[in-house]
Amino acid sequence: MLIDTFGRRAVDLRVSLTDRCNLRCTYCMPEQGLNWLPRHDLLDDQEVVRLVRIAVTRLGVTEVRFTGGEPLIRPGLVGIVAACAALEPRPELSVTTNGLGLARTAAALREAGLDRVNVSMDTLDRETFHTLTRRDRLPEVLAGLAAAEAAGLRPVKINTVLMRGVNDHEAADLLDWCLEQGYELRFIEQMPLDAQHGWQRADMVTAEEILTRLGRRFELVPEPLAGRGAAPAERWLVAGRTTPDGRPARVGVIASVTRPFCRACDRTRLTADGQIRDCLFATTETDLRAALRSGADDEAIAALWRTAMWGKKAGGAIDAPDFAQPERPMSAIGG
């Protein structure tokens, strides 16, 4: 198992399939993009599947989420999902995406074995979307959400980052719309993982601010903490509302900065170039790609992975005076 010195067990694997993206969100990367990883440095499809297999069959991983960059631009994504869905024991499989391309791939991904999707969408306003992402493609994202729902990738979850003075006034409107559509909305505090290293705590819209805004229109009832487990989102029931299919209406808030959830963290991360990261804010990595390509067997790779996770720190130390933002931005780490 992937256990650390604090007794936490990593069962949730985040796999970045690419550092590239077809949006340029202002809180993630500069307008002209970044210097992408050379293609020969990226794990190929077989290498990705092999590492997922080792994680699932030897290390106790039960959930696998494919991320990026933007994972839908990975040509072999459907085949990777199908291969991972065939593993025994079968892990839960999901994708975090910006939704571009989901309209044409949702059905194929579902057929391959994908269980659900998380779609990053920060606004319902087309002009604001263009401002935030530097691309005029909101209709494609909305079409992708509808396709995911139609394909049965439920519950369709939406991840939203509120930016002060840009889209923070939309919090209640976004929730109202998601409830009408049957999507599950989660707000995420902006984290210091931008490529520009321009994050400022004072500019961040906090979880408390988000809840205050929502509370002006909705009555929110906290779900018991016992039901949260290792999930990063604190969730609230929306009193008097249900989804179109009769499920309880919920909203989540991930307070990554103001209320870190490190004590219950159950994640391990694999970058697109084969590095293991034990934390989003880690400043060190363990190279599995070199072991793969030098002929190491599965148990040797598993041992490297166990050692990497054993040294995991108690937390990301985001509140420490000497906190240092990782060199890799979120687009290169994987969400």
Task: Please supply descriptive tags for the structure shown above.
alpha/beta, 10 helices, 29% helix, TIM Barrel, 17% strand, twelve-stranded mixed sheet, 335 residues
What strand order characterises the main sheet? 7-8-9-6-5-4-3-2-1-10-11-12
Radius of gyration: 19 Å
How many extended strands?
12
The CATH class is identified as Alpha Beta
List the helices and strands in order: EHEHEHEHHEHEHEEEEEEHHH
Quote the CATH topology.
TIM Barrel
Specify the biggest β-sheet.
12 strands, mixed
Oligomer: single chain
Mean pLDDT: 92
CATH superfamily: Aldolase class I
Helix content: 25-40%
**Overall spatial form:** globular
Write the layout of secondary structure elements.
Layout: E1 12-16, H1 45-58, E2 63-67, H2 77-85, E3 92-97, H3 102-112, E4 116-120, H4 126-133, H5 138-151, E5 157-160, H6 171-181, E6 184-188, H7 207-215, E7 220-222, E8 234-242, E9 248-254, E10 267-270, E11 275-277, E12 286-287, H8 289-293, H9 298-310, H10 330-333
Parallel strand pairs: 1-2, 1-10, 2-3, 3-4, 4-5, 5-6, 6-9
Antiparallel strand pairs: 7-8, 8-9, 10-11, 11-12
Helix pairs in contact: 1-2, 1-9, 2-3, 3-5
